[in-house]
Design brief:
Layout (H helix, E strand, L loop, with lengths): L2 E6 L2 E7 L2 E7 L5 E5 L5 E7 L5 E5 L16 E5 L2 E5 L2 E4 L4 E2 L34 H33 L34 H16 L10 H15 L7 H32 L8
Antiparallel strand pairs: 1-2, 2-3, 3-4, 4-5, 5-6, 7-8, 8-9, 9-10
Helix pairs in contact: 1-4, 2-3, 3-4
Length: about 290
């Protein structure tokens, strides 16, 4: 009977036999600890000893071919004293050792499995003395976060220069509302006595300030709250529609405020990307 195996990023997650698919649940190291049928019901459970022997199981189905560290490709051979095949050589769970010398010997120990640390170390290549998946997880996390941090810094590089160019002690820098948030100096969206907007660009800035004040946005939460970013995206869109004609002051400030508003949205989206990255690296409980 033909069988098909399904993987995600190299990890075996399911198999199909006779048209029936079974999905697998894995522990932190990659061993199959449960089998799930098409209806989402857990049909089997498995517990493993540190060096690969089956400790116990429940359910009607046989132990999967890729069971102990099966997510990483450890394949049960069914042979006596050669329990698993791991790409480069065979492994014995009874002897807790490889059955052939390491291809990298003498640089690496000849027969020791996973540096004698099977509860925290794996050897999916069958070469060397294994790798710590938790350390690899941390390394991958560092790289992903650093990449997004670099992109975020790049997104704000021009806006940081903008902050230097605008002396915030001058309130406002254009019209009555383009500059520091109007609520900072006593004008609120519900205040009927506040000044009118000077022109279309000033009106766009007032609209942005009103949007922020109504939902409680400020310098501390502006990036992490998507609704704050939405207000600033509207400012970006509104500024694109402003026609300064021959007003030199308007023509000077418009691209500066657009630089802030439009890059702001980009930076907020990068932080959303960061949330997505973090969701792919859930905390791993120690074994």
């Amino acid at each position: 009977m033909k069988r098909a195996f399904y993987t995600i990023d190299g990890t075996i997650i399911a198999e199909s036999s006779g048209g029936v698919r079974t999905d697998y649940m894995h522990d932190a190291l990659g061993s199959v600890i449960g089998a799930v049928d098409a209806t989402g019901v857990v049909t089997n459970t498995y517990r493993w000893k540190p060096y690969g022997s089956l400790l116990s199981s429940t359910g009607p189905n046989p132990t999967p071919t890729f069971g102990w560290l099966g997510g990483l490709g450890y394949r049960a051979s069914g042979r006596s004293h050669s329990d698993y095949y791991v790409r480069a050589r065979h492994y014995s769970a009874v002897d807790a050792a490889w059955l052939a010398a390491d291809p990298e010997w003498p640089a690496k120990a000849a027969y020791i499995y996973a540096n004698d640390g099977p509860t925290s170390t794996v050897d999916p290549t069958g070469r060397g003395q294994g790798q710590d998946p938790f350390r690899q997880w941390s390394h991958d996390m560092d790289l992903a976060v650093q990449d997004l941090a670099n992109r975020l810094i790049a997104a704000f590089t021009r806006s940081d220069r903008l902050a230097i160019r605008i002396n915030i002690s001058i309130r406002p820098v254009y019209g009555n509302y383009c500059g520091p948030q109007s609520g900072d100096y006593g004008w609120h969206w519900y205040d009927a006595s506040r000044p009118w907007a000077k022109d279309a660009m000033d009106a766009a800035c007032r609209k942005h300030d009103d949007c922020w004040e109504k939902i409680g946005c400020n310098a501390a939460n502006q990036l992490w709250r998507i609704d704050c970013a939405a207000c600033t995206q509207v400012l970006c869109d509104d500024l694109k529609q402003v026609d300064c004609v021959s007003d030199q002051n308007c023509n000077f400030w418009k691209p500066i405020f657009m630089d802030y508003a439009c890059n702001y949205e980009r930076a907020a989206r990068l932080l959303e990307d960061l949330r997505d990255v973090l969701s792919k690296f859930p905390p791993i409980d120690p074994i």
